């Protein structure tokens, strides 16, 4: 990379951090703004948390800034702690019935697979899981595989925009449009998407979309959003009934008790909690603008893809997808069969490398994330370490095995 911004981050210099995709890393000036909000809270908690005296207005500022970044209206965007929470709000609000079908894929995040199972057991709906075969080399292959799963009983389409285990960028746009044409709700898991690829929520047209700000957008941990199209906001019920709840009409244009849309107030105003991560989102957006982060991201993408190609050459294993269908800055790299926990621990213990290593549906994977604080020298170390741990020369001894 021609640009390295390590000095702006708080990461341990003794660790080669290649796992931005799990929890992100917050830049120093954004973290300082987060702490400024926390200090303000502690200095006068009543004033800070009183919606009449400032909280509602502060939340609105953050929501408006994020909405502009994501191509939508602030009254269709509510802050939540993480994407799993946002998706649970959407999924648990849908009036599914016995015999309804939930169409999804075999690449979804495990927490949301459990959520879908919970919904199915509670409502009597049936989960239909489409297998997206690997390697995935064309958008048409993905589109056709999911489209073949639609039936006259399909009521809900649940897809990841960027998958967690396989780091695939699913081309979901045509399927979202197809679902709308058929009267099927679309719920999109965008946990890895904001800040990773440009996102225009209104143009995409998904009925429900939840994403994290604390991953690739680099805001503090605990900042995420739920986006709901206006026509479905009246259907949304928060997971917690608290001060923001209203029994009145929640149709578009109706204000909630704290001045936002009724949908936003119900989701956001849920008793005492620290909103500082969310209030620091504008600072994260400003940091990205100040450092031309889409250019930084493009450099990171090149470095990630080049490193994945080196690992493929090292082990002679095919890629899991065409480059165009891989998440730009996050690549699931196939590695030889191994004990993934042992490999992960050896990478951290012997090389200081933090990277997820796991087995997924018969594939052994090291998932590389590349962000502005990473360097080519770190990629060299990763390739060297994987070669030493998983190469043909005494791999068992190198992993500490007998």
Automatic annotation (TrEMBL):
Keywords: Isomerase, Pyridoxal phosphate
Ranges of residues in domain Aminotransferase class V: 57-377
Pfam families: Aminotran_5 (PF00266)
A GO term for molecular function: isopenicillin-N epimerase activity
First-tier enzyme category under EC: isomerase
Record EC number: 5.1.1.17
Superkingdom, taxonomy of origin: Bacteria
Protein's name in the database: Isopenicillin-N epimerase
Taxonomic source organism: Kaistia dalseonensis
């Amino acid at each position: 990379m021609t640009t390295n911004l390590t000095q702006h981050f708080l990461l341990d210099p003794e660790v080669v951090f290649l796992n931005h995709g799990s929890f992100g890393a917050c830049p120093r000036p954004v973290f300082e703004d987060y702490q400024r909000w926390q200090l303000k809270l502690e200095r006068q908690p009543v004033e800070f948390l009183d919606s009449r005296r400032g909280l509602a207005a502060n939340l609105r500022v953050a929501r408006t800034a994020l909405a502009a970044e994501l191509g939508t209206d602030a009254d269709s965007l509510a802050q939540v702690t993480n994407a799993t929470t946002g998706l649970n709000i959407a999924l648990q609000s849908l009036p599914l019935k016995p015999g309804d079908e939930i169409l999804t894929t075999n690449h979804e995040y495990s927490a949301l697979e459990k959520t879908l199972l919970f919904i199915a057991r509670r409502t009597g709906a049936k989960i239909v899981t489409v297998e997206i075969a690997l390697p995935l080399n064309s958008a048409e292959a993905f589109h056709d595989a999911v489209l073949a799963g639609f039936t006259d009983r399909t009521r809900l389409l649940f897809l990841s925009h960027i998958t967690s285990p396989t780091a695939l960028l699913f081309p979901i746009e045509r399927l979202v449009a197809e679902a709308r044409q058929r009267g099927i709700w679309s719920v999109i898991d965008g946990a890895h998407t904001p800040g990773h690829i440009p996102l225009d929520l209104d143009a995409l047209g998904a009925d429900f979309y939840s994403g994290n700000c604390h991953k690739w957008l680099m805001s503090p941990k605990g900042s995420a959003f739920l986006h709901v199209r206006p026509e479905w906001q009246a259907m949304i019920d928060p997971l917690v009934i608290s001060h923001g709840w209203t029994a009145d009409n929640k149709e578009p244009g109706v204000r909630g008790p704290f001045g936002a849309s009724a949908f936003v107030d119900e989701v956001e105003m849920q008793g005492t909690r620290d909103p500082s991560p969310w209030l620091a989102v504008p600072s994260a957006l400003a940091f990205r603008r100040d450092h031309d982060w889409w250019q930084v991201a493009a450099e990171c993408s090149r470095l990630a893809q080049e490193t994945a190609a080196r690992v493929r050459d090292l082990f002679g294993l095919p890629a899991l997808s065409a480059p165009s269908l891989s998440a730009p800055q996050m690549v699931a790299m196939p590695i030889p069969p191994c004990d993934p926990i042992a490999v992960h621990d050896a990478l951290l213990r012997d090389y200081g490398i933090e990277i997820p290593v796991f087995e997924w549906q018969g594939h052994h994977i090291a998932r590389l994330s590349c962000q502005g604080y990473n360097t080519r020298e770190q990629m060299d170390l990763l390739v060297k370490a994987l070669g030493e741990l998983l190469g043909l020369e005494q791999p068992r001894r190198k992993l500490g095995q007998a």
